[in-house]
Design a protein that fits this description.
Blueprint lengths: L6 H17 L54 H4 L28 E4 L5 H6 L5 H10 L11 E3 L14 H18 L3 E5 L1 H7 L6 H4 L3 E5 L5 E7 L9 H20 L1
Parallel strand pairs: 1-2, 1-3, 3-5
Antiparallel strand pairs: 4-5
Helix pairs in contact: 5-6
Length: about 260
């Protein structure tokens, strides 16, 4: 039986044959196209091929438990040395080696407030330990002061990791501690040796350049008013001749104030 095809049918058949040729089709397998999706695929293995036993899924290692923060070794009397019953919650206490204590001299008219503890203070727990203390012992006698007769405290008990600057949040967490230590010492005047105590007690945005050379009123948490003088930390003596001139100028100003009072 012959089939009559229209010109359009012939064009479509030729286009389909061209497509098969491009795909690489070179023979017909069956007169009717098989419906392969209508029956499940056979999972039978060829004869002679043995199926391997299924492997048990490898146990995944348990994820490591989060590291527990290491508490600083705080002796029971450290908080009392700062004039408080308990230390406030502060992240620095979990990374420091020890809690640096203030040194209170009853009746001392002057109190030295240092910067955040350095590595020497962090190891020893002593305020103004190491090079900082040696520099103070070198410059204070030049104006008739003996460090042993003065109350002393760091701006906060704990050294920031790696000696970085104290953050604003950490300063706020430790401000009450420094206030308590000053109230306990009851000095007439404070010497703020560094930017950290300056911003803790006076102004969070204070600069050393604008604060030097004048006495500033500080109101403590109990309402007491005390005068404070801002100075560069002792380590600045080693930085340049200009820093040494500025330090000497501040020391002379301090000596003149103390001699006139």
């Amino acid at each position: 039986m012959s089939l009559s095809l229209s010109g359009q049918d012939r064009s479509e058949i030729l286009a389909l044959l061209d497509l098969y040729r491009d795909w690489g089709v070179d023979c017909a397998l069956d007169e009717v196209a098989p419906h392969r999706l209508d029956r499940a695929a056979s999972l039978a293995l060829p004869q002679g091929v043995r199926q391997r036993p299924a492997r048990a899924p490898a146990a995944r290692p348990a994820p490591p438990s989060p590291a527990q923060p290491r508490q600083a070794p705080i002796d029971p009397q450290a908080a009392q040395a700062w004039g408080v019953a308990l230390f406030p919650e502060c992240a620095l206490a979990r990374t420091a080696s020890t809690s640096v204590r203030p040194r209170i001299v009853p009746g001392a008219p002057l109190m030295l407030i240092g910067d955040a503890p350095d590595a020497d203070e962090d190891r020893s727990g002593e305020v103004f330990a190491g090079e900082t203390g040696r520099l103070l012992d070198m410059i204070l006698p030049s104006i008739g002061l003996d460090r042993a007769s003065l109350s002393q405290a760091p701006a906060l008990p704990w050294r920031p990791p790696g000696g970085r600057a104290v953050s604003l949040i950490e300063s706020r967490e430790c401000r009450a501690l420094l206030n308590a230590a000053i109230v306990k010492a009851r000095p007439e005047r404070l010497v703020l040796l560094g930017l950290t105590p300056l911003r803790l007690l006076l102004d969070e945005q204070a600069s050393m350049a604008r604060s030097r050379g004048a006495w500033h009123k500080v109101r403590l948490d109990d309402g007491t008013m005390v005068e404070a003088l801002a100075m560069q930390p002792p380590q600045q003596l080693l930085s340049s001749a200009r820093a040494r001139r500025e330090m000497w100028k501040d020391l002379v100003f301090l000596a003149e104030t103390l001699s006139s009072s």
